[in-house]
Amino acid sequence: MKNFPLIGIGITTIGKAGATLDASFPYILFLNGESKLDKYFEKLNGLMENDLMQIDDPNLLDIDDGDFNSTLRNLGKNKVLVLCRMSENKPIKNIEEAYLKLHLISYKFFLPNSLNLENLFDNLVNVAWTNQGPVEINEIEKEILHSKKNNQPFEIKSVDKFPPLTDYIVPPGVRIADTRRVRLGAYLSEGTTVMHEGFVNFNAGTLGPAMIEGRISAGVVVGKNSDLGGGCSTMGTLSGGNNIKISIGENCLLGANSGLGIPIGDNCIIEAGLYITGGSKVTKFSQDNEPDSIVKASELAGKDNLLFIRNSQNGVIEARINPKSVALNETLHKN
């Protein structure tokens, strides 16, 4: 993992009303970093009087790298080159910092839940995400009419504060069947497969190879070699008063249409259709497979080797010792 201070070299999109709509950061430099551009950190840091700086002439950066210079020259008329510096992990002050922090997670420089995302929603702008980039909401109808008049393709992928991840970053070794269902700020490790019904929110993701056919809500992390079955759900922390960060350990399985409202450890299984919240009453079984006690599910948070099922005869939720080990199909995760 990386650390502060850092400087993002970004390209922002300016709307017709003059407001910044988004920011892409193809280059992020770290003090004492090991990438080929990190050696320029001190030079750029010396240029900056403030933490956010507009660069009118790319030559001012004086970076001797052909790929870098060709990327940042001849920007479009609504594009602006910026430097955004972060010295500490503080609350977000502007849209550029918001996008830079989302990039830091999706580049996997920082783990989910490790960055201060206070004020994130306040600084992001709700726009239409199209095949021609972000468009202001009040300009959408004009753009639609213009495209029809000129017979030009114009696709609105979503109307949201968060863009699709792959409009900015394509993580290596990952498959995403429907790219609209993974937001910028998602953390996807190599070997992850996100199927059509899978969804990954910002500040959430996978820590190793995983099969995702369900929902990874904001703040949720999934351990390596775990499988989230079709239509399953994990409880997030953005609304509803839940402040418990949900995590799924390694080698776990969430059955189809199941739900999880507590953290679970390694080698756990939740049967299909079973939704467990912290207050769910669970009959806990002993190592001898005998009923032991009745507890709240929250008391089993983080425990390894548990099999959660609902007794089909009396409807009681049971937590038994899990005798099985979940194994992903390696062929499906050679991405």
From TrEMBL:
Purpose: Catalyzes the conversion of the cyclic tetrahydrodipicolinate (THDP) into the acyclic N-succinyl-L-2-amino-6-oxopimelate using succinyl-CoA.
Pathway given in the UniProt record: Amino-acid biosynthesis; L-lysine biosynthesis via DAP pathway; LL-2,6-diaminopimelate from (S)-tetrahydrodipicolinate (succinylase route): step 1/3
Gene3D superfamilies: 3.30.70.2010, Hexapeptide repeat proteins, Trimeric LpxA-like enzymes
Subunit structure: Homotrimer.
Pfam families: Hexapep_2 (PF14602), THDPS_M (PF14789)
UniProt family annotation: Belongs to the type 2 tetrahydrodipicolinate N-succinyltransferase family.
GO cellular component annotations of the record: cytoplasm
Protein's UniProt name: 2,3,4,5-tetrahydropyridine-2,6-dicarboxylate N-succinyltransferase
EC number: 2.3.1.117
Binding site for Mg(2+): 197
Reaction(s) catalysed by this chain's protein: (S)-2,3,4,5-tetrahydrodipicolinate + succinyl-CoA + H2O = (S)-2-succinylamino-6-oxoheptanedioate + CoA
Boundaries of every 2,3,4,5-tetrahydropyridine-2,6-dicarboxylate N-succinyltransferase middle domain copy: 124-163
Major enzyme class: transferase
Major subcellular location class: cytoplasm
Protein location: Cytoplasm
UniProt-annotated binding residues for succinyl-CoA: 215, 230, 233, 256, 271-272, 279, 296
Catalytic residues (positions): 213
GO biological process: diaminopimelate biosynthetic process; lysine biosynthetic process via diaminopimelate
